[in-house]
Design brief:
By secondary structure, this protein is mainly β. It folds into two domains: 74 residues, no CATH class; 215 residues, Jelly Rolls (Sandwich). 6% of the residues lie in helices and 38% in strands. It is built from one helix and 24 strands. β13 and β14 form a beta hairpin. It starts with 5 loop residues before the first strand and ends with a strand.
Length: 315
């Protein structure tokens, strides 16, 4: 498990620093869930860290699908703490259920009503995902089958066809409260524990066959794209009404708001890495300002004696 230096933010002017061990990250506020600034080389670009079972991003609006779909993501499970849970779910009781789940030990996909399979049966794989590395995962429906892919290789397939039900149910990245009006089946569904750098939902089966070249960078939007988040660029985040948002690049306005949607919802963290050789980020945006402040904090700490634990105020 990689531990890191955290900066428990009170304000930008008076952050408190506590060192846990040699790896470095700085948490800055004020955000609903703070930004983690990493300078240890674990990541080479920003991403989102879902660190709690209740971490969630509420997606604006609803998706509209026909007989085909693709839910895909770039995902990373840290060794020792990565855990299975939902990556995406759009749900309304007996009307809609669109699912992509993942964990260190496999993948899960589901579309309601899931013909000809049992309604409550998702397709799953038990192929492990290597820890501490990025993976491309995808759940695809089209051509009469449902398929799971890991890094461009098929890891699960079964019959699956027919209309994928839509409704006014809300979509979430991470955790969701799946409510039942009868109150008999109310259940909280946990987020996966790990990192996310891309997510795309499409109304077409983008991948077929046994193998394809898995995308490793920016995903693109086209006429079939319902939701698109490229989460490794700081310009794709913004602040509004006291919340952090991720911009939907599909043009459909399905922006994601951190830490809302149900009682007890918490916000994931935006991880901002900067290599020592790279220029200091320009403080032109809220997140850019946070990254800038983090760089300065790091340099100040480098000038102080290196010790195993400290508790000080950065002026």
């Amino acid at each position: 498990m990689k531990k890191f230096l955290t900066l428990a933010a009170l304000t930008l002017a008076t952050p408190m620093i506590t060192l846990h061990n040699e790896a470095l990250a700085v948490t800055l506020g004020p955000l609903p869930k703070d930004v983690i600034y990493s300078a240890e080389g674990t990541f080479d670009r920003p991403n989102i860290f879902f660190n709690n079972p209740t971490d969630t991003i509420q997606i604006s609006g609803q998706t509209v699908l026909g007989n085909e779909s693709t839910y895909e993501a770039g995902i990373y499970f840290p060794s020792g703490i990565g855990a299975t849970g939902l990556v995406f779910n759009e749900f309304k009781y007996v009307l809609e259920d669109k699912v992509l789940g993942a964990g260190p030990n496999g993948l899960l996909g589901y579309n309601y009503p899931n013909f000809p399979n049992y309604h409550l049966s998702g397709i799953s794989s038990t192929i492990p995902l290597e820890s501490d590395t990025w993976h491309h995962i995808a759940f695809v429906q089209g051509g009469g089958t449902q398929r799971l892919y890991l890094d461009g290789k098929i890891v699960g397939v079964r019959p699956g066809a027919g209309d994928i039900f839509d409704s006014d149910g809300g979509g979430f990245l991470g955790a969701i409260f799946r409510d039942d009006p009868s109150n008999r089946y109310d259940q909280f569904a946990s987020s996966f524990i790990g990192h996310l750098d891309t997510f795309r939902l499409s109304n077409v089966a983008r991948y077929s066959g046994n193998t394809f070249e898995a995308p490793t960078g920016e995903l693109v939007s086209d006429a079939n794209t319902q939701i698109l988040y490229n989460l490794f660029k700081l310009e794709n985040y913004y602040q509004q009404d006291g919340y952090t948002w991720a911009s939907d690049l599909s043009g459909n306005g399905r922006n994601g708001r951190f830490g809302t949607g149900f009682a007890g919802a918490t916000s994931p963290s935006v991880v901002v890495p900067v290599e020592p050789s790279e220029p200091v980020p320009e403080p032109t945006t809220v997140l850019g300002t946070l990254a800038f402040g983090a760089v300065i904090s790091r340099w100040r700490m480098k000038r102080k004696q290196q010790q195993k634990s400290l508790n000080l105020i950065v002026n």
